[in-house]
Amino acid sequence: MKHMNSEVKEERTSNKKRIDLFLVPIVLIAAFLNLFKIWTDEYANAYYTAAVKSMLQSFHNFFYASFDPGGYVTIDKPPVVFWIQTISAKIFGFHGWSVVLPQALAGIGSVLLLYVLVKRTFGVWAGRFAALAMALTPIVPAVSRTNNIDSMLVFTLLVATWMLFRAVRTAKFGWVLAAFAMIGVAFNMKMLQAYMVLPAFYVFYVVATKITWKKKIAFLTTATALMLAVSVSWAVVVDSTSADKRPYMGSSQTNSVLELAFGYNGINRLTGNTSVTGSSHKQPAQTQQQTASSETKQNSNSSADSSQSSNQRKSSSSQKMQAPGGGNQNGMFNTGNPGPFRLFQKGLSDQISWLLPFVIFSIVGLFAGVKFKGPYTTKQKESLFWLAWLLPVAVFFSIAGFFHQYYLIMLAPPIAAFAGAGAVALWSMYKQRNGWKSWLLPGGVLTTAALQVYIMSPYVSSIGVAPIAGVGALGVILALVLAVRKQRKNLLTNYLGAAAMVVLLAMPAYWAMTPIIYGGNSMLPAAGPDSSSGMGGPPSTATNSKQSGFNGMQPPGSSSGNSSSNNQMQPPSGSSNGGQMQMPSGSSNNGQMQPPSGSSNSGQMQMPGGSSNNSQMPNSSSSKSSPLKRKSGGMNAEVNQKLLNYLTKNNTGEKYLFATTDSTSAAPYIIKTGKPVMAMGGFSGSDPILTVSKLKAMIKKGEVKYFYLSGMGKGGQSDVITWIKENSKEIPSSKWQSTSSSAQQGPSGNGTLYEITLK
After folding, report:
1. Residues with Cβ < 8 Å from 124, sequence gap 6 or more?
2. Would you call 746 helix, strand, or coil by DSSP?
3. How far apart, in whole angstroms, are the C-alpha atoms of residue 19 and residue 30?
C-alpha cells in the first residue's frame, strides 16, 4: 500500500512539471490533420447531419436521435455522439464543421491520452513516439474529420483505459467501476463495437492487481454489471416506451434498440449477414461484391472536387467487379478477403498497417524472457493490456463479413502504443548488444520498410516511383548500417536510429494528409490518393481525370439533359449490356440487386449513414456552392429548388413536406429547410415502418400528401409504394422538375412526384 501511495504522490508531482515541449509539435500536427479545412465540408455525412438538424428542434427528437424533425424514424446508431454534436451545433451554430468539431477534438484528445498512458510506464520518449504514431496513423485523421462516430468511440475507450490503469495503481475500486461504466457509455455510441476492448480490461485487471481471487471476481462482476446497466439504460427506456409515442428505431426490423444492437450493429457485422430485413439468408460472395461495387459507384463522388479522380474511380470500380476468376480481389467495400493476412491486403493495409511489422518485433522484444507464471513487471503487464486489445480486434477484422475501412481506427491505439514502447525497448536492447534481441531493431526497420513498399506499389501512378524507391532504399540501407554498427556506441549510431524512425513514419504522414490534399469523403472516410471516393484503395491508371465518371447522379427532381456516357453509371469493363447495370442472373430478394418498379430488394446492402441503390447525388461539376465548400455527404448534396418551391407553395398544413422511400432523398431537404421529410423505409428504405392502413390514416389526418418516388420499391415498403402509385395523381414534371442540362440520369431513372388526398 505504501508503494501505491508513493506512486500517486509521484504522479501528482509529475503533473506539476512544465509541459513537454516535444509534445507541442506532435499536438500541432494532430490538430492540423484533424481540423484543417473541416469548414469546407458543408454537409458532412448528410444522414447524421440531418439528424442533428432535427435534434436541435425539440427534446423529443434530441433524446431519441430522430432522423427527421417530425420524429418518424431514428438514425441507425445510439444517441450519445449525436447529443454531443447537437450541443456543439447549438453553441457554434448549425454548420458542417460544427458537427465535425467534436470528432476532430476527440482525435486530438486520443493522441494526448496515448502519450499519458505510455509515458508513465515506458518513458517520455516512448510516450512521444506513441503519440506521434497515433497522430500519423492514416485512418485516424480520416475518420476524425467527419461526423462519423468512431473517433469519439476510441477517445472514450482510451478514457476508460486511463481509469483502469489508475484503478490498478491506486488500488481503488471506484476507478474500476468508472472504467467499466465508461465502456457502457461507449456502447451507447456504437453498441457492440465498444465491447471489443473487454478482453484487455479483464486480463489486465486480473494480472495487474495484487488482491485475492475472490476480490478480483467480485470486483469484476460488479463492474461488469454496472457496465451492462449503463449500456442498456437508453435501450430499456426506448423499448419500454409505447411505439406510438416515439420514432421508429431505424435499421431494426422489430422497432427495438436491443435488436439493433445485437443484430444490425452487432453479430451481423461478424457473420456478414448484410440483409437489413431480418432475412436469415447470407448474401453469396459474388452478389455482395456486385452490390458493394454498385453502391460504391453511387457514393464515390460525394465531394465537389471529386471530378479530378472520377474517371479513375470508374475504372477502379470496374476492375473490382471483374477481378480474375470472377471474384473481387479487394473484397466487399475494399476490405480485402477474410484470412490471416487480411490486414496486409490492399484497401486495409494503407489505412492501418504501416507499422505492423515493427509492432510484431516490438512485441517479441517486450515479452522476451517473460514466464507464464510471472512475476510480471509493470511494463509487461501494460504490454499485455495492449496485446489483449490488439489481437482480438485484429482477429475480428481478419474474419468479419461486413465492415468499413474506417472501423480500423479501433486498431490504432494498441499499434501506436507498441510502436512507442517498442521503439524505446528495441533501441535499448540494440545499444546494450543484448544477444539476439539486439537484432530486433534492424530487423524491424527492414521488414517494416519492405511492407511499406508493398503498400505503396499499387499507387505508383498517383505518387510516382521516387517515394516508393526512397523508402525501400533508405530502409534497407539504415537496417544494414545499424546491423554493421551494432558493436559501436557513438552519436552517429543514435542519429541512425532516429533516422530509421523518421523513414518509417514518412509515408504514413503523407497518407494521413491525403484527405486534405485530395479531399475526403464524410460518409465512407478513408485515406490515400483516392480518399475523396470514400473507398480508399489503389487507383486505376485512367488518364482522363476530367471525365465525369459516376458524377452522373441527380438530386430529386432534376431532369436528365445530357446523355453522355461519361456521366452515367458504367457497366464492368467488357460488359455487353449496353451501358446498363448488370444484375445477377436469377437474383431474388435475399440480398441481391433487384429490378425497379416496386420489386422487393429486401436484402439490399446499405452503408451506414449512406445511400441505397436509389441514391441520387448532384453532378459535382454543376454544384452551385462555393468551390471552397465541399458537399461531401455521400447523399444528395443539392436540393432541387424548383421542387422545394412547389412543395412549399402547395403545402396546406401537412406535417411532412413530402415522403420518399429512404433517407437519401430526404436528408438534404431536412438540412436546408429544417422541415419534416418522411423517409418511409428509414435509412435504407427497407425498414418495415409503414403499412398501407397506417399511411391511409396519415393522409386522412392531413399529415402528408406528396410522395417522391424514384422507381425502386424496397423490402417491406413495396406494398406501400404500389398503393401510392395506384391511388395518387402524378404531378407533371414541368411544374417541379429542374431542367438543368448538367443533371444526369441516375441508375433508377428520374423520380416521379405524386399527390394523394383522401376524404
Report:
1. 20, 22
2. coil
3. 17
Q: Is pLDDT above 50 for 267?
A: yes
Cis omega (within 30 of 0) on the bond before 357? Answer: no
CB neighbour list of residue 98: distance below 8 Å, 6 or more residues apart: 85, 88, 89, 91, 92
pLDDT computed for residue 495 by the predictor: 86
Identify the three-state secondary structure at position 753: strand
Strands 729-730 and 752-755: antiparallel
**Least confident piece of the model among 12-26, 211-225, 720-734:** 12-26
Q: How confident is the model at residue 592 (pLDDT cuts 50, 70, 90)?
A: very low
Cα–Cα distance for residue pair 617/298, rounded to 1 Å: 8
- Grid-cell match 505510455, residue found: 118
Q: How many CB atoms lie within 10 A of CB 482?
A: 22
According to DSSP, residue 726 is labeled: H
Cβ contact 512:138 at 8 Å: yes
Q: Phi-psi bin for 414: left (phi > 0), alpha (psi -120 to 50), beta?
A: alpha
> What is the Cα–Cα distance from 53 to 68, expressed in whole angstroms?
8
**Alpha carbons 45 and 196: distance in angstroms, whole number:** 25
Given a cut of 90, is residue 264 above it in pLDDT? no
Sheet strand arrangement including 706-709: 678-679, 659-660, 706-709, 752-755, 729-730
Residue 343 clears pLDDT 50, i.e. is over it: yes
Confidence label for 410 from pLDDT (cuts 50, 70 and 90):
very high
Task: Tell me the three cell numbers of residue 556.
Answer: 430529386
Instruction: Report the pLDDT value the prediction gives residue 271, as an integer from 0 to 100.
Output: 76
Phi, psi torsion values for 73, nearest 5 degrees: -150, 150
Residue 659 is predicted with a pLDDT of 96
Are 362 and 422 in contact by the 8 Å Cβ rule? The answer is yes
SS (H, E, C) 570-591: CCCCCCCCCCCCCCCCCCCCCC
What is the Rg, in whole angstroms, of the alpha carbon atoms belonging to the chain? Answer: 27
73, amino acid identity: V
Q: Would you state the torsion angle of the CA atoms of residues 603, 605, 610, 613, taken in this order, to the nearest 10 degrees?
A: -80
Q: What is the pLDDT of residues 632-643, one digit of tens each?
A: 444 445 789 999
Task: Give buried/exposed letters for 509-548 (b at 16+ CB in 10 A, else e).
Answer: bbbbbbbbebbbbbbbbbbbbbbbbbbbbbbbebeeeebb
Report the mean per-residue pLDDT for the chain: 80
Q: What is the reported pLDDT for 393?
A: 97
Question: Mind listing the pLDDT tens digit for each residue in 135-150?
Answer: 999 999 999 999 999 9
Cell numbers found for residue 455: 503498400
Secondary structure (H, E, C), 702-717: CCCCEEEECCCCCHHH
| Separation of alpha carbons 133 and 161, rounded Å | 18
Distance CA 112, CA 135 (A): 9
Tens-digit pLDDT profile for residues 38-49? 999 888 999 999
Give Cα separations from 477 to 345, 474, 509, 544, 687 (angstroms).
Answer: 26, 5, 21, 38, 58
Asked if pLDDT for residue 297 goes beyond 60, the answer is no
The grid coordinates listed for 68 are 427527421
Report the alpha-carbon distance of residue 206 to residue 204 in Å, rounded.
5
Alpha-carbon dihedral 308, 309, 311, 313, rounded to 10 degrees? -160
CA distances for 710 relative to 209, 224, 619, 727, angstroms: 61, 48, 17, 17
Whether 107 contacts 153, CB under 8 Å: no
Bridge partners of 755? 706, 729
Q: How far apart are the first and last CA of the chain?
A: 79
